Every structure is written in C-alpha cells, then in structure tokens.
Amino acid sequence: MNDQISxxxxxxxxxxxxxxxxxxxxxxxxxxxxxxxxxIIGFSDLLVEPRLSRAEQRSYCLMIARSSxxxxxxxxxxxxxxxxxxxxxxxxxxxxxxxxxxxxxxxxINEMCSLYEKKHLSITYSTPNDHAAYFYxxxxxxxxxxxxxxxxxxxxxxxxxxxxxxKQDSPxxxxxxxxxxxxxxxxxxxxxxxxxxxxxDAPLGKKTxxxxxSLSVVKKLCDMMGVxxxxxxxxGAGTKFKLSVPRREL
Length: 250
Fold this sequence. Notes:
Blueprint: E1 4-7, E2 13-16, H1 22-47, H2 54-85, E3 94-97, H3 98-116, E4 122-126, E5 134-137, H4 139-156, E6 161-170, E7 173-180, H5 187-190, H6 214-225, E8 228-234, E9 238-246
Parallel strand pairs: 4-6
Antiparallel strand pairs: 1-2, 3-5, 6-7, 7-9, 8-9
C-alpha cells in the first residue's frame, strides 16, 4: 500500500503519497458499519422475547457486546486515520515498564476472551524477570498495536495458544512478538494484509473476510513511530507478528 505516513528528516510527521481507492474504501466501510449494527438491532429485538432461556439471553448479550466493541473500534480507528492524514496525531514518549504493560494487557485480553468465548485457549506472557525493565515509547499506542494484533489472533484461533513475548535484545532495541496457532494466512492475502478494505482484489479473486482498517492503523502507527513490523504465517499452523521498537532519545 502506498498510503504511508512517516517522519521526515527533521523528525516531523507528514503524509507520504496519500492515495486511496475511494470506492473500495466506502464499500468496505459500509460493510464494517452495517454488519455490527444489524447484529445489535437484531439481537436486541430477540432479547424481548418472553420465552428465552438464560443460555440464549447470554449468547445474544455477548453478540451485542462484540458488535458494539467492533463499532467502537471502528470509530476510534477512523478518528486516528483522520488525525494521521491531517498530521494531527501526537505521540507522548516516556518510560514503559514491561511489567505494567503486560498487566494491563492481561486485563484487556481476559475481557476479550470472555466476549469471544475462548475459555479453552491458552494465552501466555513472557517478559524480562527484571521488574524495573523498561523501554521508551508511547505507551498508549504500543498498547493499541498489541491489543489489535492479539484480538486478531483471538478471532482466528479456535484452539491451541496465543503467546506474547516482550524482550530487550539490546539497550537500543526492544522486540515484541505475538504468535498464535490459528488458521494462518494464505500467501496472496499476506501480500495485502495491511491494505485497507482489500475486498475481492486478492490475486486469485477470492472474497476475503473483512479485516476492516485495524491492521492498516497498526502499520501506519508503526511507520510513524519508527517501529518495524514483520509477519510470518503458515496456513493451518498459525501466524506470528514481530515488532522491533528502537530506542528513542528523549
């Protein structure tokens, strides 16, 4: 995708070649809004039925909660993208302690597991033993990136495990790896993974499950913060995202 945002030589953030296929964008956005809205309205109507069992009520409520979360994430991503395109997205760099970051992520991911009903999925976290270990970054944005990647792993991993590993390879480099044992990503889809609303334009003309704009937001945030993101995937065996966060002088 050519629509990238990166810092110039003076360190200022500016859009680079901000081209977007507008019809595809609107088509994808319409789908991503209508689908959760229809679910919210439909299951809300069903909840008023007097003869629903407790299990049915719980299932419908979870569907409404998941769809509401999708809408909230969509709105948040739209706001972030608008700020990126107008050069108004700010970053606040400070020490980010590994232990604190992981503890906050555990709370978020546990809530996601409940929403997606992933009770039997193993989720493990690996960080340095030193509780005082930290790196410099925008904590909110790093949290956002990891949360999006882990949520994608939750959605596409029916059984097995998801792992989050954060390590300090050197004083100048922190590595964050999110790996899962999910369905994996086909090679033709992997090439356009960070494109916004790819629709049916995959090389083989396949209809792909909508990924919305979340992974596009991840890529743009990484570019703007100088973070390198790599992805490896094996169909039927899982996917691994690797983030390389360089040291930033304050």
